[in-house]
Amino acid sequence: MSQQEQIYLTPMPVRIWHWLNAFGIVTLCITGAQIRFPEFVNLFGTYKAAIRLHNTAGVVVSISFGLWLFYYLFIARTLAKIYIPSLDDLKEGLFRQGVYYFFAYFFGYPNPHEATPDNKFNPLQKAAYLMIMLVLLPLVIASGILLMNVDPLRGWIILLGGLKLLVGSHFLIACMFCAFLFTHIYLATLGHTPFAHFKPMWTGWEKVEHSGEQK
């Protein structure tokens, strides 16, 4: 028999960052689509308007990333613990969580990972967020800064392979972010109710189920 308790899973600074970052990345994806395919997408009026909004959202996301990194490194001091998979995660956790998402969830089995404030992400989430937050996001920010400053940074752009390679790399990483957004939203619905994982991002509190054998 399962029991439920409420835990304060997501502090307010993290919730504010999450939604600021989410709206910024969605704006980047939509404006980026208009910039890349202006003949098919026209949601923001002129081409220049889309570029201005894209650049503004890029600055907001860049600042947001800096605040996120500062918070987890120097205030919470839990960056490595929360976002970097442990050896047990790599040996067994990734497989166990994959089986849950692709098979066990649909038969009503409990999630093998129980979230806590110090260990709120399961092994697959850790691996995904590690790649997104510490690899892809810094890369898309760096490439975006170069594209916003082509003339003064032309030497760096040439050193990195030229403008075409930079534009292609920036677009490819953006496509990865778009794919992640859809996957992220879908997986967030796989709680004990479809909105169970959404509520902590508004209130900070989440209901966690424990089996009868566990304390």
Name the features:
215 residues, mainly alpha, 2 domains, two-stranded antiparallel ribbon, 8 helices, 64% helix, 6% strand
Rg, Å, rounded: 20 Å
Spatial strand sequence of the major β-sheet: 1-2
Helix- and strand-based class?
Answer: mainly alpha
Helix content: 55-70%
- C-alpha end-to-end distance: 12 Å
**How many runs of DSSP E, i.e. beta strands?**
2
Approximately how much beta-strand content do the residues carry? 5-15%
Question: Could you please describe the fold and organization of this structure?
Answer:
With 215 residues, the protein is mainly α. The protein folds into two domains: 12-77; 78-204, no CATH class. Helix content is 64%, strand content 6%. It has helices spanning 12-36, 47-75, 79-83, 87-102, 123-148, 154-159, 163-188, 200-203; strands at 3-8, 205-210. Helix 1 (12-36) runs antiparallel to helix 2, helix 2 crosses helix 5 and helix 5 (123-148) runs antiparallel to helix 7. It starts with a strand and ends in a 5-residue tail after the last strand. The mean pLDDT is 90.
